Fold this protein.
Amino acid sequence: MLEATATIAFMIEFNNSFLTDFGGHAMKFQQIRSATSIVHFGGKRFLIDPMLADQGTYPDVPETTSTGRGNPDCDLPCPINSLFDVDAVIVTHLHFDHFDAVAAEVLPKTLTVFSQSEEEAQILRGMGFIDVRLLTADGTEFDGVKLHRTDCDHGSTNLVTLEGYKEGGYSEKASGVVFESAAEPESFYLAGDTIYCQSVVTAVEKFKPGIIAVNAAGAQYPLGHLIIMNQYDVRALMHRFPTLKVIATHVEGVSHATVDRPMLRAFAKVNHLDLLSVPNDGEVLEF
């Protein structure tokens, strides 16, 4: 497993020094909770998809599986304000488990926020965020880091899911991000809320990342209709790109997850997915 070769640079601490050990330019990935993470890349810290509410603040996602603990289905491993020590925030899309009402309320409004579209950027500006910038396919520069928007299939090709999104007032649009920097030996690809699809293959072939983080809770909406990767998507990705180091994030934390960490680790062992890492909440992987 990748955990055996990655340096665990940080232990969970429930105090305000939670994110202080992030010096230097080494690529680091810290799992926070569900899709929320901290990416340290090119000497900059990026807060990814902040869902910051207490466990059970929101109801279960309807018409699908349920862990029975509401949303989020677990608590943060750290004080909320320990997550503010970042250079920018990346919001891959505006579903509640990627940017929630608590994040909109408590995040400092002076933080730079990156959005997948002008439509969502306007919504974020309406929440009071002063510096909202667009992710683009050609790349958006930020202090020596170039951020490329990539496409996702978050149920966008499934007519049943699209009908459910429409009824619930949700958009099917989501995005991933490729990080590039002269300060890093290889690029990093945050695949975002997507199943394994041609868009993911195209992004890997185009940018040739050394590391990819995939959202792998196997969430369904409605029941039986996959909207992000599950263990079989992860295996297919890793079989096609056998040298790619893979981080499984967004594995637990939401009511409609069908994959948990023990399940995915056991699956990886049986299928010899040796370059797969499944970090716990609060854990940091260093590359």
About this structure: Confidence is low (pLDDT under 50) at residues 1-23. The chain is about 20% helix and 25% strand. The CA atoms of residues 93 and 111 lie 17 Å apart.
